[in-house]
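Dear colleague,

Thank you for sharing your sequence with our group. We've completed the structure prediction you requested, and as agreed, I am returning the results in plain text so they can be pasted directly into your records. Please verify that the sequence below matches your submission; if there's any discrepancy, let me know and we will rerun it promptly.
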Amino acid sequence: MLQRDYITEMTRRFVEALTRRLRSALLDQDPEAIADLEQAIGELLDLDGATALSLDASSLVTMMELSGIADSLASYVCYALLRVADAYEARGDAALAAVRRDQATAVSGAFLCELGSVPAELRELDEDIAARLGER
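Please find the predicted structure tokens below.
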């Protein structure tokens, strides 16, 4: 019960962070918003964002496994990594976008979440951003 409450709270905070900064990261290509998203990903693993996302894809998966909450939050992390990759790509940083995509692919494979799926709580936001970017 306590772990479920903890995971629910972590999910709520993560969704809140994504909701607050995703538009700026993708629509405005705001580097501070991108950094905030990376920080939110890191906080899920009890690390700062720079440390967590400096890990190669397999090390990131290992850190997620060690966190004990990865199975519950992997689809959120995968989604966030892909959207951060989109933001880097829009800013012209193809190398960092590729790293984030590799991390998302590794998370997807390790935790059996569908690469590219959008968590239910973020669908409306994602559809709005995609429409503004002309993705759909």
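Summary note from our side: The chain has a mean pLDDT of 90.

Kind regards,
the structure core
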